[in-house]
């Protein structure tokens, strides 16, 4: 991106704009080369202008939230990374005596929503306790845990198409599948609404604490990671169990290691490179395919240049 285009991009954003920015600073696992630009729009109107501008000049872009479930290759990203964290409003709308609609911007974190739901005695989002992502990422990957998925509670999703127009789509019109919402390339999730039920605060609090306790015991939260690396085959066979059974836990390449605590996590011991993590991913896929005849699919998104 030349100097003129950079200046134009900076002028259309009221939030922060960084150029030649290491993505290791913006991913939960702490790896990633340099992105041409990272922008933080603070209103949907700004996002619309940015999308139109990038499309007009054929500049690739990707939206991100907290940078969880994301691995950026060591060669960086030749395009613009759009952080959605500035679009983080949360509001509640009464839906009769038993239900409340929670509306959240794509940049709102799941932890904020879980906390607010608990305070207002609203049930439905407990399964998201401990998931470090944002609303946009959670909807895009149809995040799930403990037998529940985002599609179970979502009512509408706001989608910004390449023209900058926002379309409010109802769940029945959306293509949710296991760990994915199928949307057109270039379409960005800008917000979502969730239909929650009135509940008992003590019961909601107890369930959240139970889930947080299980996560602490099962997941290697003491190290930087990108969450679950692989989807469960057929949506139900735990990928971590297969990796464990094949004796792969603890294998290390560089400063990246298959967690000894949970086989479906790769952790950054401190100085890992994206290439180390990707090498472990490829090794696991090859071994599982050879030994079990299963081709694992990644749950994490891998982008950028080698």
Topology:
Layout: H1 3-11, E1 17-22, E2 34-39, H2 44-56, E3 61-64, E4 70-72, E5 77-83, E6 90-95, E7 99-105, H3 110-119, E8 122-123, H4 135-140, E9 144-145, E10 148-149, E11 154-160, E12 166-170, E13 175-177, E14 180-182, E15 188-198, H5 201-218, E16 224-225, H6 239-245, E17 252-253, E18 256-258, E19 266-268, H7 274-292, E20 301-303
Parallel strand pairs: 2-5, 3-5, 4-20
Antiparallel strand pairs: 1-2, 6-7, 7-15, 8-15, 9-10, 11-12, 11-15, 13-14, 16-19, 17-18, 18-19
Description:
It is a single chain. Helices cover 27% and strands 28% of the residues. It is α+β, with helices and mostly antiparallel strands and 306 residues long. It has 3 domains: 3-83, Uridine Diphospho-n-acetylenolpyruvylglucosamine Reductase, domain 2 (2-Layer Sandwich); 90-217, Uridine Diphospho-n-acetylenolpyruvylglucosamine Reductase, domain 3; 222-303, Alpha-Beta Complex (Uridine Diphospho-n-acetylenolpyruvylglucosamine Reductase, domain 1). A hairpin with a 5-residue loop joins β11 (154-160) and β12 (166-170).
């Amino acid at each position: 991106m030349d100097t003129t285009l950079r200046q134009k991009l900076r002028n259309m954003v009221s939030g922060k704009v960084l150029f030649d920015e290491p993505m290791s600073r913006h991913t939960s696992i702490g790896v990633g080369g340099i992105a041409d630009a990272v922008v933080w729009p603070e209103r949907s109107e700004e996002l619309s202008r940015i999308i139109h501008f990038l499309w007009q000049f054929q500049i690739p872009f990707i939206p991100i939230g907290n940078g969880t479930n994301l691995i950026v290759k060591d060669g960086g990203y030749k395009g613009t990374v759009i952080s959605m964290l500035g679009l983080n409003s949360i509001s509640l709308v009464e839906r009769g005596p038993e239900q409340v609609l929670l509306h959240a911007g794509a940049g709102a974190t799941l932890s904020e929503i879980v906390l607010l739901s608990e305070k207002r005695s609203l049930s439905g989002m407990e399964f998201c306790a401990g998931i470090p992502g944002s609303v946009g990422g959670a909807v895009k990957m149809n995040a799930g845990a403990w037998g529940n998925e985002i599609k179970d509670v979502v009512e509408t999703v706001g989608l910004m198409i390449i023209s900058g127009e926002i379309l409010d789509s109802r769940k029945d019109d959306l293509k949710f599948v296991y760990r994915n919402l199928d949307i057109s390339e270039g379409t960005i999730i800008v917000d979502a609404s969730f239909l929650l039920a009135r509940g008992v605060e003590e019961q909601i609090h107890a369930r959240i604490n139970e889930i947080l306790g299980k996560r602490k015991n099962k997941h290697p939260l003491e190290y930087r990671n990108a969450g679950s690396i692989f989807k469960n085959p057929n949506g139900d066979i735990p990928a971590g169990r297969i990796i464990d059974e094949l004796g792969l836990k603890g294998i290390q390449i560089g400063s990246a290691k298959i967690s000894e605590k949970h086989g479906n996590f790769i952790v950054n011991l401190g100085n890992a490179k994206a290439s180390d993590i990707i090498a472990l991913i490829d090794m696991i896929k090859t071994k599982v395919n050879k030994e079990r005849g299963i081709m694992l699919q990644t749950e994490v998104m891998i982008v950028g240049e080698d």
